[in-house]
């Protein structure tokens, strides 16, 4: 039975809200709480980001299997489980008496991230709506684009009033009271016909894993995600290193969310009629442009930098969901997506820790490295035009 447009809108709102909570309480958490956590345990922030990196590394191993399961059975049960795991992991994090338990808590959260963030949500939508998933994917990213804007100030306020441990407990409770009902009650069981089509077999996915389009996409996604993860973990500190006050740094960093949403609205309206490759290419160069402004003009360009970075990051998030769909089709999307983003996950795993060290050594000039990564990703996107044509010709 086809799912009505009203139900589709409800699904997008539910997933978008749950994703906002999921990203804001996990991926964006160290940017605000790494300092207090390190002070509590008497270690450097590098230890905190090392635990976070271990969590990210775990997602690279789990992702392909999760995507394959969503292809076959849908994502409702997996997203429901992610809410429970997030709650358990954050509660354990807040109660951790030592670093061993602290790292174990982050590993549990990492498992939740592997089964509960964008890749799982995109695969869930594609399993339900097939080729028409592009607008739904954009819809949930529009809502979740506010994750940093909403959750960074909340985390900072909670930490200032009650400490980082209570902050973790509050986020754990939010997953039980908000995320769990949304994922369990509002995500439909129904799957599209493509989900059981012969083309959705593992063999057909394996045949494309080392194709030129897959390799170029994997590289482009990896370098952009390394940059995105580094900025999510360290953006306020980088802006302070560039000369901004702490207040200005947090205020400027909070603009990433609105910039992401504004850029996604632009992609959903003006750029929707074009191939998503155009959006991806434009998004690849916004971070380097922002870096140039910040390094040339210093603190006064902090807001411009975060707006440009946020805009590019927002559109690339959509591209990571839509480019594989457009190039390879919906059959086997989840499993293919899991393999496609695995290199990015490995890069993300090391990014917070490595950039914590680079930031201590080089200050704001660490941005030269992220800028170079994005330029390399842009080059891969330019090369992808011929590769995508080949993929279409062979499909």
From TrEMBL:
<feature type="transmembrane region" description="Helical">
    <location>
        <begin position="365"/>
        <end position="384"/>
    </location>
</feature>
<feature type="transmembrane region" description="Helical">
    <location>
        <begin position="46"/>
        <end position="66"/>
    </location>
</feature>
<keyword id="KW-1133">Transmembrane helix</keyword>
<dbReference type="InterPro" id="IPR020846">
    <property type="entry name" value="MFS_dom"/>
</dbReference>
<feature type="transmembrane region" description="Helical">
    <location>
        <begin position="214"/>
        <end position="235"/>
    </location>
</feature>
<feature type="transmembrane region" description="Helical">
    <location>
        <begin position="136"/>
        <end position="156"/>
    </location>
</feature>
<protein>
    <submittedName>
        <fullName>MFS transporter</fullName>
    </submittedName>
</protein>
<dbReference type="InterPro" id="IPR011701">
    <property type="entry name" value="MFS"/>
</dbReference>
<dbReference type="Pfam" id="PF07690">
    <property type="entry name" value="MFS_1"/>
</dbReference>
<dbReference type="InterPro" id="IPR050189">
    <property type="entry name" value="MFS_Efflux_Transporters"/>
</dbReference>
<feature type="transmembrane region" description="Helical">
    <location>
        <begin position="78"/>
        <end position="97"/>
    </location>
</feature>
<dbReference type="GO" id="GO:0022857">
    <property type="term" value="F:transmembrane transporter activity"/>
</dbReference>
<feature type="domain" description="Major facilitator superfamily (MFS) profile">
    <location>
        <begin position="11"/>
        <end position="389"/>
    </location>
</feature>
<feature type="transmembrane region" description="Helical">
    <location>
        <begin position="103"/>
        <end position="129"/>
    </location>
</feature>
<keyword id="KW-1003">Cell membrane</keyword>
<dbReference type="GO" id="GO:0005886">
    <property type="term" value="C:plasma membrane"/>
</dbReference>
<keyword id="KW-0812">Transmembrane</keyword>
<dbReference type="InterPro" id="IPR036259">
    <property type="entry name" value="MFS_trans_sf"/>
</dbReference>
<keyword id="KW-0472">Membrane</keyword>
């Amino acid at each position: 039975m086809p799912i009505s447009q009203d139900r589709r809108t409800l699904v997008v709102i539910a997933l978008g809200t749950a994703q906002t909570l999921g990203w804001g309480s996990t991926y964006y958490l160290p940017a605000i709480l790494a300092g207090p956590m390190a002070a509590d345990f008497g270690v450097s922030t590098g230890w905190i980001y090392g635990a976070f990196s271990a969590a990210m590394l775990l997602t690279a191993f789990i992702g392909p299997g999760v995507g394959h399961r969503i292809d076959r059975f849908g994502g409702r049960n997996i997203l429901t489980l992610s809410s429970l795991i997030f709650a358990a992991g954050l509660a354990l994090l807040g109660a951790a008496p030592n670093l061993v338990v602290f790292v174990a808590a982050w590993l549990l959260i990492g498992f939740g991230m592997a089964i509960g963030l964008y890749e799982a949500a995109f695969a869930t939508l594609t399993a339900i709506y097939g080729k028409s998933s592009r607008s739904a994917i954009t819809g949930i990213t529009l809502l979740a684009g506010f994750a940093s804007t909403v959750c960074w100030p909340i985390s900072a306020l909670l930490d200032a009033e009650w400490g980082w441990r209570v902050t973790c407990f509050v986020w754990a409770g939010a997953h039980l009271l908000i995320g769990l009902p949304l994922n369990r009650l509002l995500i439909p069981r129904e799957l599209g016909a493509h989900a059981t089509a012969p083309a959705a077999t593992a063999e057909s996915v394996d045949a494309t894993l080392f194709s030129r389009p897959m390799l170029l996409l994997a590289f482009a996604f990896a370098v952009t995600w390394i940059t995105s993860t580094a900025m999510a973990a360290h953006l306020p500190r980088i802006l302070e290193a560039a000369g901004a006050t702490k207040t200005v740094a947090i205020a400027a960093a909070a603009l990433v969310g609105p910039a992401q949403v504004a850029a996604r609205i632009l992609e959903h309206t003006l750029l929707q009629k074009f191939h998503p490759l155009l959006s991806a290419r434009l998004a690849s160069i916004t971070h380097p442009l922002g870096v140039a402004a910040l390094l040339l003009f210093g603190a006064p360009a902090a807001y411009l930098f975060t707006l440009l970075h946020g805009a590019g990051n927002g559109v690339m998030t959509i591209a990571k969901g839509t480019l594989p769909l457009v190039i390879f089709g919906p059959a086997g999307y989840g499993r293919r997506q899991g393999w496609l983003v695995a290199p990015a996950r490995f890069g993300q795993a090391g990014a917070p820790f490595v950039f914590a060290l680079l930031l201590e050594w080089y200050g704001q000039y660490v941005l030269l490295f992220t800028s170079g990564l994005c330029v390399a990703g842009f080059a891969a996107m330019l090369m992808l035009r011929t590769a995508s044509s080949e993929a279409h010709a062979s499909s």
